[in-house]
Amino acid sequence: MAISVSSRALRAAFFACGLLIGGLAWFGPAAAAGTLLSPGTAVLIKKSTQPFGQPTAMLLDGGLHEKWQNLQRRLDDEMVQLALCEGDREGCVSPAALRFLAIIDAAKLREGRARLGEINRAINLAVRPMSDLAQYGQLDVWASPLTTLTRGGDCEDYAIAKFVALRQAGIAPDDLRIVIMRDTVRGEDHAVAAARLDGHWLTLDNRRMAMVEDSDIRNYRPTFVIDQHSVMRYTDAPVLTAASRNPEAPVVISALAAPGPVAPANQAPTTTD
After folding, report:
1. Residue 15 to residues 76, 97, 127, 194, 230: CA-CA distances in angstroms?
2. Element holding 73 (H helix, E strand)
3. Structurally, how many domains does the chain consist of?
4. Cα separation of 140 and 97, whole Å?
5. What are phi and psi of 202, to 5 degrees?
6. Domain of 81: which CATH number?
7. Is residue 252 part of a domain?
8. Residue 57, strand partner residues
9. For residue 20, how many other CB atoms are within 10 A of its CB?
10. 224, CA 20 to 30 Å: which among 21, 27, 66, 150?
């Protein structure tokens, strides 16, 4: 029975993601979904610390930065609610908070890779796959974990919930990311959480229970990466192969640089996964 539930959940999750990356609209405000946004000012950061070992530039302002900052404010509110429920579980009035705390508690009982895998599996099974368009009548709505556990979500919502759960389970912020990747075969975009363990980045994907190391991922181009405080753009990232990883090559970009070859400037593709 557990295998059947897992299989159905993953099949449904595979079609749940509705990112909109073209023109950087994926990070835009919900009211402006589908529009083209400026990426904001960018500065070079050292790429070797990021998943996939590709060069990145930090975005200091613009729509992408604002999207993440707005979500973080909602996450701060949820952390207060979680703290209250953790201190008085019998008096907690949020079923979603209790479910989320149970996932975190189970992960804390494990160590290393098993802790990461516990959260990946639990979130994959706990979230009902649902597109933003079906839920909100809009594209690219970023939901906080308790909203996602209550209403369902698509790939970025899974990734956000895992990002928060991993942090609450004791993983250091420097070892956590959310990564946006372009599927170069399907022409679609996809979001995953990433966690660093023993110097290696593992991806936690709503499409699968098994975690895959970044160096083993093929036919994807990383486009954006997010940490606790920052949104960064991968610059001129090639399709990922084992031979493409070169963490030493320097990269310099203009503060007004374009977002890179995600999609033509006049096109905003919508994913179907």
Report:
1. 30, 26, 13, 20, 28
2. helix 63-87
3. 1
4. 24
5. -105, 140
6. 3.10.620.30
7. no
8. 44, 233
9. 22
10. 150
Specify if 92 maps to a domain.
yes
Kind plus residue range of the DSSP H or E element containing 4: helix 2-14
For the chain, percent of residues with pLDDT exceeding 70: 68
* Residue 264 belongs to a domain: no
CB of 39 within 8 A of CB of 259? yes
> Residue 189 sits in which domain range?
2-25+36-244
Q: Which residues contact 47 (CB under 8 A, 6 or more apart)?
A: 53, 54, 55, 56, 247, 251
| Cα–Cα distance, 84 to 99 (Å, whole number) | 14
Would you say residue 137 lies in a domain? Answer: yes
Query: Where does the chain show beta strands of DSSP type E?
Result: 42-45, 56-59, 176-183, 188-197, 200-204, 212-213, 220-226, 231-234
pLDDT tens column, 63-103: 767 888 889 999 999 999 999 999 999 999 999 999 999 99
Residue ranges of the chain whose pLDDT lies below 50: 1-5, 7, 10, 13, 15, 21-39, 46-47, 239-272
Q: Pull the structure tokens for residue 85.
A: 């429920």
Measured between alpha carbons, how far is 230 from 40 in angstroms, rounded to an integer? Answer: 13
How long a stretch of residues is the chain? 273
Q: CB count, 10 Å around CB of 175? A: 16
Dist CA 176 CA 265 (whole Å): 31
